[in-house]
What we know:
- This protein is α/β, with parallel strands linked by helices.
- The chain contains 8 helices and 10 strands.
- The protein has 2 domains: 8-110 and 265-275, ATPase, nucleotide binding domain (Nucleotidyltransferase, domain 5), CATH 3.30.420.40; 122-261, ATPase, nucleotide binding domain (Nucleotidyltransferase, domain 5, 2-Layer Sandwich), CATH 3.30.420.40.
- α7 links the parallel β9 and β10.
Amino acid sequence: MLKTCLTINELDNFLALMKRQQVVIDVGNTHTVVGVYTGAKKLFWRIESNRKRTVDEYWSILVSLAVNSGIDLSATSIAGMSCVVPKLTGVFRELSERYLPCEMINVTSKTDLGLTYPVSDPSYIGADLLVDAFSAVEKYRSNCIVCDFGSATTIQLTGLNRHFYGTVICPGLQTSAEGLVNKAAQLTGVDFGGEFGLLGTSTGEAMLSGIIRGHALMIDGFIKQLRDEFSTLNPIKVVATGGIAKLVSKYSELIDVVDETLTLDGLALILERYLN
Length: 276
């Protein structure tokens, strides 16, 4: 049965770690998600990853969101970032230097996360993958396959021994849908909120089944093969995260947990290592 959240004890233990206000920023190709952790309270804001915005424009957006949520960003003890958009790395680093009263930790393959890798140079591994790997092991205390659904869909395996075994990168669900629509003249945009059966009775339903169920079948196929190839690690918990994790998980037979804040929670836990 799909488990959509941590148990009460797991959640309490995790929140108990958050002693000081932290700001965490996960910069993706399409969206940037900002989290504020203060005490046992967590707030999240999703904004567009616009490469043309200036430091001041991003700060104006964050201040407005913070004020509306009753958050004082000047009380931040430490900030952290994972970024897969090189141009925006500098933008958010400068934002921190100019406006936040604290250090900004930019997570890269050189950051000490206690992880080991199958290659001597792990710089090819995206910051989001590193944070997800760290977060999954910290939160679930298990060998984990993490499926992250974003502009790309990534599937990675990390052991409880903190070894990062590797990853698979596939076109994301939204990316695949847009590619299909752009290449097929008779197909129109897809409403992912629509209802559909296994066999569609309209073009829209047929596309939904192919795109969403097809993505879930692909994920399950990779999970099965990984569990077979790395059978010495079983049992392996499968954690799904990302904007459409719930949607895909609805049609997956092998995803165990939907954790929409896995990356941000991981950043917050990484910052705790620096604070302690």
